[in-house]
Amino acid sequence: MGVFQALQVIFQYLILGITLSIIVAYLSLAIVSAVNLRRYLRMNSFVDYNSILTCPFVPSISILAPAYNEGKTIIENVRALLSLYYSDFEVIVINDGSKDDTLEKVIKEYDLELVSYFFEYKIPTQDIRGIYKSTNKSFANLLVIDKNNGGKADSLNAGINLAKGKLFVAIDVDSIIESDALLKMVKPFLQQRDKRVIATGGVIRVVNDCIVESGQVSKINLPKKFLPRVQVLEYTRSFLMGRMAWSKLDGLLLISGALGLFEREIVIACGGYFSKTVGEDMEIVVRMRRYMVERNEPYEIAYVPDPLCWTEVPEDTVILGRQRNRWTRGMIDTLNVHRAIFFNKKYGRFGTLGYPYWFFFEWFVHVIEVVGILYFLLIIMFGKPNWEFFGIMFALVYSFAVGLSVWAILFEELTYHKYERRRDVLILVITALLEPVFYHPLILYWAVRGNLDYLSGNRRWGEMVRKGFGAMRAFLRSL
Fold first, then answer.
1. What is the pTM of this model?
2. Of 153, 343, 185, residue with least CA distance to 267
3. What is the CATH number of domain 1-479?
């Protein structure tokens, strides 16, 4: 056997070993998630959330909703926030220098007027141009901040400065929160524990093609288009199978920017959201965890596996590519800034399991995959490819990818059963069969672009274009 053939065999075994390690990791997370989700559902079946609603000791909550060019959805979203079930909360909408009619629509709809409002810049932010409150007493808990553009992190920091709540919810204003979401998310803060709960997160679902009335999802439909439909699979796998497991293993690094509940005091002590990254939702969680560990204070980040929030996902490749590019750059930035955690026993399983998993299986795996593809192309051009090996590898990876998605669909049906029609379940299974071939190459391409853009110093957010919920109401009228 020549040197080239020997290197080829070594590389093939290396690829096989990496593939099997990824399969084992994902299967382990799926099993841990399944066991703990069933346990959560059994225990939670006895909870009466009305007792939380009427409890006089519940912590006050400030809901922070940054808005930039959200004119298409802003009224529906604010209406949904104001209608949440909770006894002591305020809604703070932060208009981050929108260029459309976002601010004008909110002022007109809720009878807002410019007011004098004392606050302290505990966290530095862009200048605030004005603060608005409603002349209608029905909206007394609504506060609108108009500020110079500074990005989502800067907007959240401005909201934190003005917030009165002990806890605050960070949301995407294009999202729709379930009416009882605050009750479910605040529950871990109220339970007797030997650790201080500093944050909770919940499950995010896809709202595309659902019917929205009065700021709430009245009818759940499976998206008609392939791109948002395949994102349903992604979100199901990520939230029901991934984050549930990492919460149990104490290795959770991320609470979705679409919905998270945080202890305001800790976030201020950490210096607020980092405005120099496009991955502020991941970075703040990692920084909060480091803050608690370095002060030797026992803490916990809880995860609520109930579907609590619905968000509009991109429906075309241009917008989706911008989003995934940004996610990649944000992840790399966080991993780089907090690289001291890597395999550091001081941080427990957060450092020895959570961080390494994100490093190897969320970031580095794309690098390995690109190297594997380039290797395969070089072998075809200059060597003698082992077609049997590549055939076995493709069958193994494809079967596992489809099987994992089908498992997620099955588990969703056995637990929350949001898609009631059998036809929808069948369509999701067909989508799972198509995803590895037609969708995953795009994800890989966007990840590569994200890496290259990060290395080139690109820190741009990337504009997200919303279809808005008006189209969903028009669909309802057409039925």
1. 0.91
2. 153
3. 3.90.550.10
